[in-house]
Amino acid sequence: MELHAPGGPVRSFKDFLVHIGVVTLGILIALGLEQLVEKHHRSQLAKTAVTGFRKELAYNEDQIKEMQGHIPELQAKIDRAIAQLSSSPSTGTAESPIVYPGFSVEVLSTANWDTAVATQALNELPFDAVTRYARAYGTLRLFAETEQQGLSLWKDLRRFGTDPAGIAKDQRVTLISELRRYGNALIVVDFAGKAALRDCDEALK
């Protein structure tokens, strides 16, 4: 039986080795080209990921600063509400309605980080860079969690209503305690925000 391959029939063992060599070389070249294409693709994924990180982290920084800008106003409202609830109303004098502090929730984005993890684009980035980005996104998630905890406390504040005359003494004590807890939660939110801003700045260097 004769073996036929491109370039003519195989007539000797030497021809057989030549043809095997040509086929093997062709396969190696094809595999090499495939690896180059794959490497280029992964490199582009990594570049796209870094561009996305920088835009996303800058956006999140703005959101955090927006939230932090509202904290002094919220704390002032808490202090005024506590002072009002702590004072004894004058006989025959109508008390002003209680002005509850509001709440500011800023929505943070982690879509680019989640996509980079899913596509394994992080594998193409230097370890130090991945560490900085991971730390930044970690503290951003911590900030979001403290926001949600503060929001949960805030939701319970208004259950006593805004009319001081309708709030019993023991309820006033409870409400004052909850207002203070909410104020403390805002301090934690601010602290978490500062940590997130620090790590975002480090990642964006």
Question: Which properties best describe this structure?
Answer:
single chain, 205 residues, mainly alpha, two-stranded antiparallel ribbon, 4 helices, 2% strand, disordered N terminus
The helix tally amounts to: 4
Task: State the share of residues found in helices, binned by percent.
Answer: over 70%
* Residue fraction in strands: under 5%
Oligomeric grouping of the chains: single chain
Number of strands: 2
* C-alpha geometry: rod-shaped
List the strand order in the largest sheet: 1-2
Low-confidence stretches: 1-5
Span between termini: 69 Å
Descriptive account of the structure:
The chain has 205 residues and is an all-alpha fold. The chain has one domain. 72% of the residues lie in helices and 2% in strands.
Brief rundown of the structure:
The protein is mainly alpha-helical. The chain is 72% helix and 2% strand.
Helix/strand layout:
Elements: E1 4-5, E2 8-9, H1 13-86, H2 111-119, H3 127-155, H4 169-203
Antiparallel strand pairs: 1-2
